[in-house]
Specification:
This protein is mostly helical. It has one domain. The protein is built from 4 helices and no strands. It is globular.
Length: 98
Amino acid sequence: MSLTFEDAVRYLPYIYLFVISLLTVAFTCYDKAASKKLPGRRVPEATLLFMALIGGSVAMYVTMRTIRHKTQHAKFMIGIPAIILLQLAGAVFFWLYI
C-alpha cells in the first residue's frame, strides 16, 4: 500500500498542529526556565501569544497549567482560552460551510 499525494495532503493539517504544538510547548518551557535563570533571555509575550494564535493554543494552555507559568497574567489566562474558542468557531464554520 502506497501513500498517494491526496493522502499526504489530507494529513498536513494534523502534522502542522503537531509541530506547532511541540514548538509552543518548547517555547513555554524555555520561558519558564529562563524566568528563573536567564532573565535577559526570555521569550517575548507577543511571541508566546503568536504561537498560540497560529495553532498552539491548546498545547500552550495545557503547558501553562501543568508547569504553572503565566497563570497570574490575565492576558494569558483569559487570552489563550479566548483564542481556543475563536479557533474552534473557525473550525466549525470551515467544517460546515466550506
